[in-house]
Each structure stands twice: as C-alpha cells, then as structure tokens.
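Hey team,

Sharing the Enolase run so nobody has to redo it. Sequence (100 residues) first:
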Amino acid sequence: MLESNKERINTAIKEKACSSIVIKPNQVGTISEVLSLIDLAKKNKLSYIFSDRSGETNDAFVADFAVAMQADFVKFGAPCRGERVAKYNRLWEIEKEGII
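Structure output:
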C-alpha cells in the first residue's frame, strides 16, 4: 500500500492508518532516502520492516543493512530459493559473529 513512498507514509501517519512500514531499499533508491524513512518511522513510533523485492539476486547486502539499521523485522520470503536463503544465511552468520 505505501510502497516505501514517503508521501504515502506521511498520509498514512496523519490518518493513523498504520503501525509499521515496509522498506525496500532498492525501491527507495538511495541510502539517504532509506535513512530518512527510518527517521520518519522512529519519530512516529512506527516499526519498520526491511524487505527485498521479487527477482532479487544472491547478494545479501539487505540483510547487513537491516541489522545495521536495527530493523524490527525482515521480510525475505520463504527460504525456498537461493536468493532468499542467501539473505537468511547472512543473518545467521551475523548472529554467530555475536553482532546481534
């Protein structure tokens, strides 16, 4: 519904229509825009969920980014395809390193 769109998120906040937002970094466009969405979520006491998009690659950067930004949740889909498993494996590696 909100599609990581700041204008739509602001409208939803004003109407008290949501309690969390989904952030898809590759849909947002830039790191600074993602940081802006996170700041907006925190200021309005919304949880934020990092997600990937369908048709992703095996690159697991979004998992590292979600941990670094202290995302409340991640949404990578069922661990049934290589690109999804790569992201969950990266979260597991981060956990084993004692970072989270």
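The chain has one domain: 6-96.

Ping me if you want the raw files.
A.
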